[in-house]
Amino acid sequence: VTLSELDTPALLIDLDIMERNLGRVADYARAHNLRLRPHTKTHKIPALARRQRSLGAAGITVAKVGEAEVMLAAEPDDLLVAYPVLGPRKLARLMAVAGRTQVTVALDSLIAAQQLSAAAHGAGLTIGVLVEFDAGLDRMGVRPGEELVALAREVAQLPGLTLAGLSFYPGHIKHLDEDGLRRLDALAALLAAVEADFARAGIPIRIVSGGSTPTLFQSHRLPLLNEIRPGTYIFNDRNTVAAGACTPADCAVSILVTVVSNARGASVMIDGGSKTFSSDRSAVAGDVTCGHIVEAPDARFVKMNEEHGFVDVRDSSRHFAVGDRVRVIPNHVCVAMNLHEQVYGMRGGEVEQVWRVEARGKLQ
Amino acid sequence: VTLSELDTPALLIDLDIMERNLGRVADYARAHNLRLRPHTKTHKIPALARRQRSLGAAGITVAKVGEAEVMLAAEPDDLLVAYPVLGPRKLARLMAVAGRTQVTVALDSLIAAQQLSAAAHGAGLTIGVLVEFDAGLDRMGVRPGEELVALAREVAQLPGLTLAGLSFYPGHIKHLDEDGLRRLDALAALLAAVEADFARAGIPIRIVSGGSTPTLFQSHRLPLLNEIRPGTYIFNDRNTVAAGACTPADCAVSILVTVVSNARGASVMIDGGSKTFSSDRSAVAGDVTCGHIVEAPDARFVKMNEEHGFVDVRDSSRHFAVGDRVRVIPNHVCVAMNLHEQVYGMRGGEVEQVWRVEARGKLQ
């Protein structure tokens, strides 16, 4: 099957670029002796998680139990659920997963730890816990210092749990500009203080898992940090470029669409909208465009309804006829993947792989 | 099963409110002798389309062939695809649908009409066509006047097609404030002119299908218009309220979530994010909140990542403990429905219906 035989909208993955992206981060992690636990919420495809494992990933990360259930198919050595899991139904499902592989959960409250402990103890299992601390974003995680040490100590004493370490997400560092570099320095100082706190308390910390897309290639500069869990790097998107973590040439993903109307002069309509791309905005302040049109960089994808998009072509030298097909790089690939039943791995204009997005739209 | 036994996030539909909403619009259409062809992109559930038919709907509307395929299960008398369908694969699928029920397509170009004609003629079928005109939004549709009459005439002469009428979408009328009422008057004048054009040209127009959520209950004031195709009215959402088309008490939909972290003082984290609600914004200018929290109207749902949301609780009198459950009315229900595998029809705290969202995330 070739590109011209695919119907639209179709989410395309350039396999050469994807493989280069996977290799770059695997090499970086290996060079700096960092555990790599890729976040699979980006691709949601067990076959790609298996690919990440074969390149040296020590485990994988998921955002919810529904993804963990699907990702068992990748036979991960260790599966991190990056958020607290609460309630008897979700915990029962999590224990079923934990019966098949080592499970670790990131959490930031005693209530979440107690519920997890009761479920694990009841099932005769041991669940690893990363205690989440606030690295500056002020959105989740306990305060570093006494509060963090106290929660870690309590977790270590609960039956069915083992204190695997700590986790953090420095989402307040959006870009490594001057301000971002200052925040990165502050984060390094914070991590050194956390290290000292735990040394003083005599609590051994095996794993410290953290980072974000903008800080990915600075991870070796952060003390204490020994595990990274990047997600978007496998494909990259407009927002990864905006974060300074890759170049436009590193974007492996695009969505093929067809022009279905050009009856209005100023704009044309394409067959992809918020149910194809998601309505996630550009991370660039003031940029309201919904994606980058590869074949017509001067055309502006300015608006979406649910199944269709509107491209302002007034400044474009390209003529858009009804039936024309163009490719669009989305703002945010993780949410776009979640909207597609299947995606196409392309090489040299040929469809080499068709993947079902197996973990899309699952229960939490 | 009761509410307390449902795991989160869960999309709940209050059946009493839904039935009142369905009845209100069915009664309005009947009272004003308007054909009602509900847009099923909102609910994506054949059982609900069947409910709409039993209340007098003359047909149903879909946004794409993938929805048409699923909605055949509702056995509609007439199925309108509200957008042009292009390319041999989609047209072959559309002809398969047309072999089982009357299909009508809205389009605005000769190319789309010719492709549809070739497919219909080849399959020995007759497809209805609504010629779409621009009612003021300037996003799709040909210009009313000569251009519209010319395209309608060409459609009428193509084999395999029958000119069923005209369609329009007055998306430039956002709210019936003073400005909106002025635009409504201008639309009425435009429709009268279109009527005169077609009378002069001697082209009979059977159906004129149009309107939007803000203009829904003003449809009887518009000349020529004889078919409405509302979608959101079955559930309503924050944006329907913002459009002035319903009150908050008419919102049948809410999403049940659990508080999974309250470690930060200013905000708490809930287990629903952009993969639960979608990232569609509020239609109210300047309103950046992601939903309305029923149990705590003073708490502000200000931010989402993919699977989690962040609620600013500084101005809320309600305390949010880890494990607490609250309900959130989404900004835009159509895109939220598209993210859920199943939804729950509730009556008096009991789950009366579990519906699979059968047409969610389908191919175009």
Tally of extended strands of chain A?
A: 17
Distance between the termini of chain A: 35 Å
Most residues in contact: chain pair: A-B, 62 and 62 residues
Structural class from helices and strands of chain A? alpha/beta
Q: Tell me the helix content of chain A.
A: 25-40%
- Write the element-wise H/E pattern of chain A from the N-terminal end onward: EHEHEHEHEHEHEHEEHEEHEEEEHEE
Largest sheet of chain A: 9 strands, mixed
Measured by DSSP, the beta-strand proportion of chain A falls in 15-25%
CA radius of gyration of chain A? 22 Å
Number of contiguous helices of chain A: 10
Give the integer mean of the pLDDT values of chain A: 97
Low-confidence parts of chain A: none
Structural write-up:
The structure is a homodimer of 364-residue chains. By secondary structure, the first copy, chain A, is an alpha/beta fold. Chain A contains 10 helices and 17 strands. Chain A has helices at residues 15-31, 46-54, 65-71, 88-98, 110-123, 146-157, 178-201, 238-242, 274-277, 333-337; strands at 10-14, 35-36, 60-62, 78-81, 102-107, 127-132, 161-168, 207-210, 227-228, 253-261, 267-270, 291-293, 300-304, 309-312, 325-330, 342-347, 350-356. In chain A, strands 1, 10, 11, 12, 13, 14, 15, 16 and 17 form a 9-stranded mixed sheet that branches. A 6-stranded parallel sheet of chain A has the order 3-4-5-6-7-8. In chain A, helix 4 crosses helix 5 (110-123). The longest helix of chain A has 24 residues, at 178-201. Chain A is globular, with a radius of gyration of 22 Å. The two termini of chain A are 35 Å apart. The model of chain A has no long low-confidence stretch (mean pLDDT 97). At the A-B interface, helix 5, strand 10 and helix 9 of A face helix 5, strand 10 and helix 9 of B.
